[in-house]
Each structure stands twice: as structure tokens, then as C-alpha cells.
Amino acid sequence: MRNFAVYINPAFADKTSIFELLIRLRAEDLSRCEGKPELSFYGDISQQEHFLDPVQAVDFDDHTKAHSIDCILVFGGDGTILRAKELALKTAAPILGINLGYLGFLSESTLPEISASIRDLVDSRYKILSRMLIVCTLKRDKKQILQYEALNDAVVYKGENPGLINARIFASGSYVFDARCDGIVVSTPTGSTAYSLAAGGPILAPQMKAMVLSPLNPHLLTIRPLVFPAEEKLILKIHSLSQQAWLQIDGNNVCPIQDQDEIHITASTRHVNFIKLSKRTFYRILRNKMHLGK
Fold it and tell me: Is 78 a catalytic residue?
């Protein structure tokens, strides 16, 4: 690996330190690997106002540029990694998360570790882990309004509405249950450790192919989170909605929901790859980051 895309949390205060680090990494590589092309760093043109040397802004809608990328270095927290999903889909390159945030559950490296991490990438000492996506389609009057892919989750929630949301759940055409609740989270295995977990949902190992449906504060004690196989086609039919609700994809509000809207959720045919460098298992990360069993 020698061609890297760089994606940065624009809110990070000390961005200059990142570019100084990249210059130093390229110099270290030149002294170590004489005769090889130097490391190259590229950033999406949408973030060009944040870039300094050695990062070159390019348009990754250009397939030639996109397909030349070997790896995406994401500097930020878990939210930044979620936003880098689109770049990963454009380039088909794996993500290496460098944690600058609070939890860093999806990150594999830190700023002090990045020099060693780059050496491992250049020397092909890494594994690739694939993570599933879900496709969320909003239909209104039987017409498709919008469609998004989510790495973490799709959420229907009441927003500023003081009342509850009424949703009728179907799985591949079969009626599951009716829920009166503050909202509903449908998550991937990646997202099972995020909002879904806070709503009482189970933790899924990231390599699984499944979806978790977790109602938010359901009115009935008998309503519980459910795990569905990735082959299922979930439909959330919203009814008796007196005030506007919202559809949220990976933590971003994308569209208001109206009464009688339907949210269709299926597994995507695409996926996002992540770099695995260390021998830290998923369960060790759970113990260290989320204090599992402590």
C-alpha cells in the first residue's frame, strides 16, 4: 500500500499536526524503502479547505482516481468513520481508523501508533474485515422518496413530537408486531454496539450478517429487540402519526416522516472493508472500551 486517501474530522482543532505527521511518515518511508515510489496522500475535494501539504485534493467521482487508492486513513472518532463510508464505497478501499475522538470503537490505531501502522500497511502485515451495510428506502403513497445505505443504523424517531410513534413491523411479508414507542432502531452488526445497544439491543459480532430491530422506550413491556437474518426484508409501516417524525441514517437526519410512510430495510449487496492490524479481538475491545463484564 502506497496510495492513501485521507479523511479528517473538520472539527478537530489541531489539524496541522496531522499534516506534519504525514510529511514525517513519507520521509521515514523514503529513507527505509529506497527505490520505491513515495507514499502519496489524497483527500476528497469536498474537504479541500482543510488540507495542507502533503495531501492533494482530488475528485473521487473520477473512477480512475478512486480506484488508485489502496487505503483510507480516517482521522477522527467513530462518527467520522461513519461519514467516510461514502468514500470507502467510491474507492472500494479499506478504512484504517485513527482515533481522535472519545470512544474510538471502530478505530484500529492512534496518532502515536500511526507510524508503525503505516509500516505494517506498506509491508502487507494486515487483515481485511468486511462489514455489512443496510439499505433504507422511504416510500410514500407507494412511491420511493429516497434511499440510503447505512453502516451503523437507520432510526425512526419522534423528534420534538411529545407523543409516541405507532409502527407495524413486517419481515418478508409476515406480520411481526405493533409498537408504540419513541422510535425504532434497525442496526447492522457494526451498529449493534451503538444506539441499538443503548436501547437494550444485543451485541452482534461484526462479521455476522444480520439486522437488529430495537424499539425505543416501547409502551408495552412485552416488546423486545429482535434479531433478523440478513435475508429478511423489513418494513416499518408508520400510522396514526399526529406530528412530524424523522428518519435518521448513521446519526444524520435525512428526511421528515409523514403518516402512512413505509420504511423498507434490507441488507445491501455492497460492504465496507476495515483494516485489522492488531491481535486485539472484538471481545477484548468490548472489555476495554465498553467495560464488558466489569
Answer: yes
